[in-house]
Amino acid sequence: MATQPLTIDRTKSAERIERDIETLAGPDYTRSSEAIMRYAYTPEYRRTLDYFIGELEALGFEHYEDPVGTLVARNRPAGENVFGVGSHCDSNRNGGKYDGTMGVVTALEVCRLNEELGLDLPLQLISFLEEEGSGFGQMLLGSRIIAQRVTEEELREKFRAVDDGRSFWEHAEEAGYEPERWQDSIRILDDLVGWIELHIEQARVLQDTQNRIGVVNAIAGYVHADITVYGRGDHAGATPMDFRKDAGIVMAECMLELERLAREAGKGTVGTVGEIELRPNLINAVPGQAKFSLDIRGVDEEGFRGVARDIAAFAKEAAEKRGMRAEYAQRQTLSATPLDEDIVAALEEAAQASGEPYMAMHSGAAHDTMSIADRLPSAMVFVPCKDGISHSPEEDAEPADAAIGAEVMLNAIRTFTAGGQ
Fold first, then answer.
1. C-alpha to C-alpha distance for 247 and 167, rounded to whole angstroms
2. Domain coordinates in residue numbering, the chain
3. What is the per-residue pLDDT across 97-133, written as a single tens digit (0 to 9) for each?
4. What sign does the CA torsion over 399, 401, 406, 409 have?
């Protein structure tokens, strides 16, 4: 039997969401007077968790933190099935007040609405530790620990604090956690039957298409790599053009070829050169070496990985044609993450029932949902952010859109759980 969609008091929800976000943008919750800056094991991050704990306790939720500090709150005892909602409340070091935090705040609003409307849905809110990597230079760290995608050696030795160089393990212990029990973090997922994360889009597709909700059906995988071209450094004035081995020229050819390859691959595949290093980097010297980064992403696995293979081969050939050589070195790679068809369908149905414009889309950015989507049915909801700006004090999003997101999530959860999932 179909669940009749409900309509919430969106104005009231938007006001509460705005109040939460503005409170958490205050001086007690950031280490910077110019931006939002909070990350694991800092006093500002602790106060942010405590704010959420206070609001959730008022709803009768029980809470705990996993062995390294991911916050979990639920309205059912352990052993009973629950549906998960949440995101992360850490920021980058020059961040804004919406990235991540709006997702946790909206999840909190879903919990409030559940109580207010007497729905009695079984819910579990999660605020993942260290999504941005500001504390230890490791993105998605809390959710990767939950998914057991790290090693104890990395936690004890390799993952080091940006501020003081001490290990993640040492900082976790100092903050009162039990990193020796890190493998128990996976128990967070034990009772979850599904998961939805709301996030600002971090692009301008929703804004430019005048949609208020994005239903995310996949998260792009990526290849991060570097290409280094070895030429010969010469005097810029004294060396004729025909005698040069200019590594910068090969780099330029590769940048244009990357654009062509990504466009040809289609299916949302993108390629970016974001870091460039020329040596000797002087105005009057021909570059003898050029090093540049590759960020290649897409939801089609063969598509984005094919671009990475092809640009590596192109660089080698382009360098050899000019009497030089090129080396390709991969930094990191992650597979694309398809999201659950049933939850996506429930979200699309709820978005349609909202009467607001929405679209199906994929995420080009990484999110904690990637870490858990292969372990339980998962999906995401995007709301617009002004001009696509994120990771910046200038980022801006509308609490009214998040209120619609809360309504859509609530209806999708009702549909999904009513279906006996």
1. 38
2. 10-219+336-418, 221-334
3. 999 999 999 999 999 999 999 999 999 999 999 999 9
4. negative
**Which residues, 6+ apart, have CB-to-CB distance to 321 below 8 Å?**
none
Q: Using an 8 Å Cβ cutoff, are 399 and 192 in contact?
A: no
Structure tokens at 276: 């460039």
With beta carbons less than 8 A apart as the criterion, state whether 68 and 177 touch. yes
Rounded CA Rg of the chain:
23
Bridge partners of 62?
A: 74
Q: Which residue has the tokens 């959860």?
A: 413
Question: What's the pTM value of the predicted model, to 2 decimals?
Answer: 0.92
Strand partners, 289: 230, 279
Say which DSSP state 339 is in.
P
> Residue 1 has what pLDDT?
45
Q: Which CATH superfamily is domain 10-219+336-418 in?
A: Zn peptidases (3.40.630.10)
Top CATH class, 221-334 = alpha beta
- In angstroms, the Cα distances linking 383 to 92, 110, 213, 241, 386 are 20, 15, 5, 52, 10
CA 358 → CA 27, 143, 208, 354, distances in Å? 35, 28, 12, 9
Q: What are phi and psi of 380, to 5 degrees?
A: -135, 160
